[in-house]
Predict the structure.
Amino acid sequence: MKEMTQETEATAAASGQRATERFREQKASAAGTDKERVNRLASRVVKAINDTVLEEKVTYDEYNAFKAWLIKVGEDGEWPLFLDVWVEHSVEQVANEDRHGSKGTIEGPYYVPDAPEQQSPATLPMREDEPGTPLLFQGRVTNLEDQPLAGAKVEIWHADDLGFYSQYAPGLPEWNLRGTVIADADGNFAINTIQPAPYQIPTDGACGQLIAAAGWHAWRPAHLHLKVSAPGHQLITTQLYFQGDPHVGDDIASAVKPELILDPAPRADGNGREVTYDFVLDPE
Ligand code: DHB
Ligand code: FE
């Protein structure tokens, strides 16, 4: 068998299994064991499914197709992908509704903690011949009173110019386009990277099967993922998008907000583009 070494040979099953393993390592917990709460939430979900069956007069063929599909989501390891695309945006809305600072949005399935740390100004780890338009992403991290948060931590990860994430597609260096950048004493950060490509969620697994069967599309607009934090302040998980992206108004994951759209300008030295975006963190 040919060895899988190229990112373009990524499969839904492989990236899905990886996302599932990662989730188990980092986040799986038995949160909310309160019986009343479990009863309430589980009853509502089950009722929503039953209401759909009754109101839509779902047939046995459709019920069996649903059952087969649910089994395949698990086999492909695609529960993290499915949930982060179709459900996480509502969880994020609830979680961040009281914030006054920068807008958050979904984390998605491809965060990896502890990316190599660098002081600002930084260049993200990338291949020598990394394809794509160079992008200088810079800004300032402040509190709600516009005071700089010295040494704030900016974690950033994003897809490459073909839409693939390191550690989830084969053949990419471990930390490609992933980094932890420490802002300077004035809360300023500057990060050299490349512009990510629009990202298509894997189309060859269970989620892709649903998308094709329903006549949807699989695209997310190009995006930078970020986690920004500072001592005494709430960490914000967010994404930033690009003005003019064909999918910015039509994200399969419903994660775009108008405040999160960047409009980079050509750099004076002609070397790619640059954009400034400031983060405002809420107190803990
Ligand atoms: C998915 C991928 C992403 O890059 C993202 O930001 C959100 C969701 C996904 O494949 O489910
Ligand atoms: Fe993403």
In short: The longest helix spans residues 35-56.
